[in-house]
């Protein structure tokens, strides 16, 4: 394993080096949080694909293939569909807003009163997303070094926190591009063909496995529908995804670069399912489906290649973890703390925005590592995060983009009713049940429509300022500490 260890160590050292290089570029809030909004198509496509394809998409996607066959691709496939929908229908408008967070968009659209509660919901989502990604280090480092779970989480989490804190989005962008290349080579170009060959080819796989393993809908229609509801719609509204859209240098980059990334996700979904199906032929009696990826890598790949593929798994986890971490810190600082700071800090007092955001990444990173050590059930944590995100925020966000009659009161009611309904229904039906997100989303929609129609329409000046920003004519604030909510009264 010496060669494999060397590959991993060189990879991790490279991540830290890029964090140091990114620190030299991140001199302003825009540079630190959204890479100066300057990414071109190639860089944008690679980093977008890297952040959405994490440990769940790689290790979990192979595990679903092991359990269900080709239909196990549906989870990652719906992520790709969501990214395609975001890129084709919404990304250009989102990029033109020139904001930093989803809650700032809500403030701009509804008049500066909808962002606080939405910021809390988004912060909880991004925190849990970062935690679940961080827990995945335990699996990978256990395969590599037979390492204690807590030590593995601390080691992997510390590297991500280090390069994210140093250079912000520039460091994360650079590391994500490397991670994208490593994942492409390790999973698509090496592990996929080797797994199929080791299993005897597709003909042998079909002969060895039940026919339902090759049924595209074998996982079940209800499961596919739930994946669409949670992951496809989740891609449309997550802060971690939007923050990458904000890095695009133009509308065209956001639209076409995201379309390429979404298409890549569809191919990655199929590859993971095929690898899992091959693993089922090779190892029919694994104790857990999620062990399929690590087992086939450890037992079937040659020296050196094994290290590269494990680096690919590590890359998948790190890209999602770092993206969720900077999203969590951005929301915590810009949507929650900045509002409290605006109350207690004398107006006009100057402070270093980059230093403040860097401190929040470090603080949130330590919180993520501590939570990951204490938490055991990754699936339940991720389910809670996505249920809250979709049930609480999908309707007011898409409603604000698509329905001009939506009001701030309707948005607040939608977030509160949807979020509380999801929590209550999870307590009643169970965290992993489908009903909470179904009924929570319906409750959120009903509250949004009813309350919006029952209250006064959004002020014409607010809507005019909103349309200006959607058209790309609104200037990005020169003072990095200025919030969108502070700009709206000026527009009035």
From TrEMBL:
Q: Could you tell me which CDD domains the record lists for this protein?
A: SLC5sbd_u3
Q: Kindly indicate whether the keyword Membrane belongs to this entry.
A: yes
The record's keywords, sorted A to Z, are:
Membrane, Transmembrane, Transmembrane helix, Transport
Report the Pfam families cross-referenced here: SSF
* Topology of this chain in the membrane: Multi-pass membrane protein
Q: What is its main location?
A: membrane
**Compartment(s) where it occurs, according to its Swiss-Prot or TrEMBL record:** Membrane
Q: Which domain of life is it from?
A: Bacteria
Annotated family: Belongs to the sodium:solute symporter (SSF) (TC 2.A.21) family.
| PANTHER family per record | SODIUM-SOLUTE SYMPORTER-RELATED, SODIUM/PROLINE SYMPORTER-RELATED
Q: What is this protein called?
A: Sodium:solute symporter
Q: Which organism is it from?
A: Streptomyces cellulosae
């Amino acid at each position: 394993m010496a060669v494999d260890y060397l590959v991993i160590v060189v990879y991790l050292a490279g991540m830290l080096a890029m964090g140091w290089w990114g620190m030299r570029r991140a001199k302003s809030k825009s540079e630190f949080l959204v890479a100066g909004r300057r990414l071109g198509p190639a860089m944008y496509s690679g980093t977008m694909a890297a952040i959405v394809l994490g440990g769940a998409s790689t290790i979990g996607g192979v595990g679903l293939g092991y359990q269900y066959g080709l239909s196990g691709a549906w989870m990652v496939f719906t992520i790709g569909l969501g990214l395609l929908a975001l890129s084709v229908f919404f990304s250009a408008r989102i990029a033109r807003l020139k904001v930093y967070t989803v809650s700032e968009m809500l403030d701009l659209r509804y008049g500066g009163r909808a962002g606080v509660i939405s910021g809390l919901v988004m912060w909880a989502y991004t925190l849990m997303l970062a935690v679940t990604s961080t827990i995945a280090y335990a699996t990978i480092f256990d395969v590599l070094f037979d390492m204690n779970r807590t030590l593995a989480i601390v080691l992997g989490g510390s590297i991500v926190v280090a390069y994210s804190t140093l250079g912000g989005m520039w460091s994360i962008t650079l590391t994500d591009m490397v991670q994208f290349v490593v994942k492409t080579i390790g999973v698509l170009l090496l592990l996929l063909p080797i797994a199929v060959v080791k299993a005897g080819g597709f003909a042998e796989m079909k002969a060895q496995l039940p026919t339902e393993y090759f049924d595209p809908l074998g996982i079940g229609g209800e499961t596919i529908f739930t994946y669409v509801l949670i992951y496809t719609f989740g891609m449309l509204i997550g802060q971690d995804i939007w923050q990458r859209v904000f890095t695009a240098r133009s509308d065209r980059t956001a639209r076409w670069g995201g379309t390429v990334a979404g298409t890549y996700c569809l191919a990655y979904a199929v590859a993971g399912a095929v690898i899992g199906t091959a693993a089922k032929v090779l190892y029919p009696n694994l104790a857990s489906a999620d062990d399929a990826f690590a087992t086939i890598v450890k037992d079937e790949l040659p020296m050196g290649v094994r290290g590269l593929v494990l680096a690919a798994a590590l890359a998948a986890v790190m890209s999602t973890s770092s993206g969720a971490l900077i999203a969590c810190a951005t929301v915590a600082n810009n949507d929650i703390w900045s509002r409290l700071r605006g109350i207690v800090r004398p107006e006009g007092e100057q402070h270093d925005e980059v230093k403040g955001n860097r401190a929040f990444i470090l603080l949130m990173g330590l919180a993520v590592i501590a939570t990951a050590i204490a938490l055991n059930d990754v699936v339940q944590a991720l389910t809670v995060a996505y249920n809250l995100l979709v049930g609480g925020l999908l309707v007011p966000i898409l409603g604000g983009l698509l329905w001009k009659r939506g009001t701030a009161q309707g948005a607040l009611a939608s977030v509160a009713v949807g979020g509380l309904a999801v929590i209550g229904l999870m307590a009643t039906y169970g965290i992993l049940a489908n009903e909470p997100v179904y009924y929570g989303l319906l409750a959120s929609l009903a509250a949004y429509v009813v309350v919006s129609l029952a209250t006064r329409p959004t002020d014409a000046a607010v809507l005019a300022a909103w349309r200006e920003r959607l058209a790309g004519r609104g200037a990005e604030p020169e003072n990095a500490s200025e919030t969108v909510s502070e700009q709206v009264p000026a527009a009035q």
